[in-house]
Amino acid sequence: MDGTLLQTETLLIHVHPRLFAALREEGLYTGETPPVDELIACLGMLLEEIWKKVMPDASEAARRRADELMLQYELEELEAGNGSLYPKVAETLRELKARGIKLFVASNGLEHYVKGIVKVKGMDDLFDDLYSAGEYETASKVELVALLMEKHGIKQGWMVGDRSSDVEAGKGNGLAVIGCAYAGFGGNAELAGADVCIEHFEQLLALLPKPEAAKEDLSSEITG
């Protein structure tokens, strides 16, 4: 979701100051508000890992409260119209769906955050299912994607994402990996090992086999 479908910084610039103001008001955080870029750089990690990096000296109570506030404010800001999808995301997903391709989200985020984005952005009808670490309590995205594939009987496919966790999840489950180089949250090293990198989401369509070859292995154009 983050850094692949959603241009998350357009949401976090509204959430970030509210979250730290609330933590200070509740007496859970006394330091300066860290730069929002520090939070953005952690996107794709589990929340537990994010808070350890963004506010390493904070108490466990502060980090758990930050989880709650993050979700609350993200949903509020989404409902207020903040937070943008990357260009051509909705159109590309609809074209992929029209071609009979099953679409899933596998995110390290919270359940209601992932589902909230899909609902607010009018994408409910596009995805076959939504998987989040928050809902399934998985320790890694490798585990989350394995669960998805087992439940839906997926034998082949593409893992599309912008972080090293996406590359690991794809390779760890025998999937071709498409690296999304347009977000830039973690730098080029994040996508080392990806089969192909794209600069725009709609470039996924150009990687697909031609209609007459649709029954062939989808990974052939990437790995062949």
Automatic annotation (TrEMBL):
Pfam families: HAD_2. One of its GO terms (biological process) is DNA repair. Transmembrane segments: none annotated. InterPro entries: HAD-like_hydrolase_sf (IPR050155), HAD-like_sf (IPR036412), HAD_2 (IPR041492), HAD_sf (IPR023214), PGP-like_dom2 (IPR023198). Signal peptide: none annotated. GO terms for molecular function: phosphoglycolate phosphatase activity. It comes from the Bacteria. One of its GO terms (cellular component) is cytosol. PANTHER family: PHOSPHOGLYCOLATE PHOSPHATASE (PTHR43434). This is Haloacid dehalogenase. It comes from Paenibacillus beijingensis. The lineage of its organism: Bacteria, Bacillati, Bacillota, Bacilli, Bacillales.
